[in-house]
Specification:
With 168 residues, the protein is an alpha+beta fold. The chain contains three helices and nine strands, in the order ααβββββββββα.
């Protein structure tokens, strides 16, 4: 497999090291069975998201949700229940799973709820005030340089109050 050189992306960008590592890991990861459990990712609005996983048969104590270094991990491990049942066919999966989601900076998990076999994880992007765009005021300066062709040079158009009164 060919390798991809991401160094041109780093020439004009700062702070996107995690993005490069994410892309690199996606390109180098082997084939995995990532279709269980099925899930949806929903954008509620610009800053609110919801992940829904179909975890039928799992109780809240069978599920574990962790977030660390921009990675949300949802683990499910069914507790073993001694059963004398004799199945003719068992199509309901009770297997353990681990589902991982990459989370952007400043995205936090606000709530997790298990309802009707669906695990709903609510997320919100909370950008700190220091990171939000802000307008910078432009101060008008009275110090202007003007080229004067008669005198062959540049003169400062700013006069002090005393200079303007003295010329009267």
């Amino acid at each position: 497999m060919n390798t991809i050189d991401l160094s041109p992306l780093y020439r004009n960008s700062i702070g996107f090291d995690r993005f490069g590592a994410l892309l690199d890991s996606a390109l180098h990861s082997g084939p995995t069975n990532t279709n269980y459990p099925p899930y949806d990712i929903e954008a509620i609005d610009e800053d609110h998201y919801k992940i829904t996983l179909a975890v039928a048969g799992f109780d809240p104590q069978d599920l574990d949700i962790q977030i660390e270094n921009g990675l949300l991990k949802v683990n499910g491990k069914k507790s073993k229940v001694a059963s004398d049942s004799k199945y003719l066919y068992q199509g309901i999966s009770n297997r353990a799973f681990e589902r991982k989601f990459n989370i952007a900076d400043y995205v936090n998990v606000t709530n997790a709820e298990l309802c009707n076999g669906l695990l709903h994880i609510s997320l919100v992007r909370e950008i700190p005030e220091a990171m939000k765009p802000k307008n910078i005021a432009i101060n008008a300066s009275s110090n202007a340089l003007e080229h004067n062709a008669d005198k062959g040079g540049v003169e400062n158009k700013t006069q002090t109050k005393e200079q303007s009164e003295g010329s009267k």
